[in-house]
Amino acid sequence: MNRAVLGLLLAGLPAFAVAADKAESVSAGVTADFAAGKLIAVASCAADLYPPSADVARLKAERVARSRAEDKLRKALTVVARDHKAKLARFGGAERVAKLDVSTAVVERIEYGATSGVVLWLALPLATKADRGKEGATQESAVPDAGTGSGEEP
């Protein structure tokens, strides 16, 4: 093979790797990050106009936004299981991913508006903690234990 051709092929490899790791839209408001092994849903909610307090308005908006994000994840799971079977093989297969419980999703990010409105990003891992433990050390186990002491020398 010609060195110039080989050089062009090798120069293009990082671009292919970046494209493979890029998150892709699965359905409205939901992206799939197969490299990180999670689905991310974005939902928002405006605050109640006449709440007893701003804290109550914000809390209600958070609950509604989370409920909307969970609904989006439920719908996206069927799409992902149907359309991305090859990518789901490393997470136990499409059938297993389709049975994931969206209530186990965690809030990845939350933004509060000045009027107590909320935008919430909800992340659903495609593998359960037990599955991730089989693959290797989890992020939680990589963090050293801080202990129960006060941090001061005796």
Q: What proportion strand?
A: 15-25%
Which structural class do you get from the secondary structure elements?
alpha+beta
Number of strands: 5
Count of discrete structural domains? 1
Give the averaged pLDDT, no decimals.
78
- Which series of helices and strands comes N to C? HEEEHHEEHH
Helix content: 40-55%
How far apart the termini lie comes to 69 Å
Output the radius of gyration: 21 Å
- In which order are the strands of the major sheet placed? 1-2-3-5-4
Main sheet record: 5 strands, antiparallel
How many helices does DSSP assign?
5
Residue runs with pLDDT of under 50 for 5 or more positions: 13-19, 135-154
- Principal-axis shape: elongated
Word description of this protein:
The protein has 154 residues and is an alpha+beta fold. The protein has one domain (23-134). The chain has helices spanning 3-21, 54-83, 94-98, 129-135, 139-142; strands at residues 24-27, 30-33, 38-45, 106-112, 118-125. A 5-stranded antiparallel sheet has the order 1-2-3-5-4. The longest helix has 30 residues, at 54-83. The model is unreliable at 13-19 and 135-154 (pLDDT under 50).
